[in-house]
Amino acid sequence: xxxxxxxxxxxxxxxxxxxxxxxxxxxxxxxxxxxxxxxxxxxxxxxxxxxxxxxxxxxxxxxxxxxxxxxxxxxxxxxxxxxxxxx
Length: 87
Prior knowledge:
- This protein is mainly α.
- It has four helices and no strands.
- The protein has helices spanning 3-12, 24-35, 44-51, 66-80.
């Protein structure tokens, strides 16, 4: 999720951020995939890092911008290229 969007939602609805784990669903999925030996690419960490420098999500939306799509395609290309596997 876009950090700015999350911040906006927490503030707008006066939610206690400490009561929410925004990574929970991602972690459940990654744990399941790893437990079952299913190759996967977790882009979350890289999206967060790159998202500090440029907008990767549409404003107040969870869809990727052109830059977000570019990053995803680069990550997928690298992961699917020879010599890459489960990360």
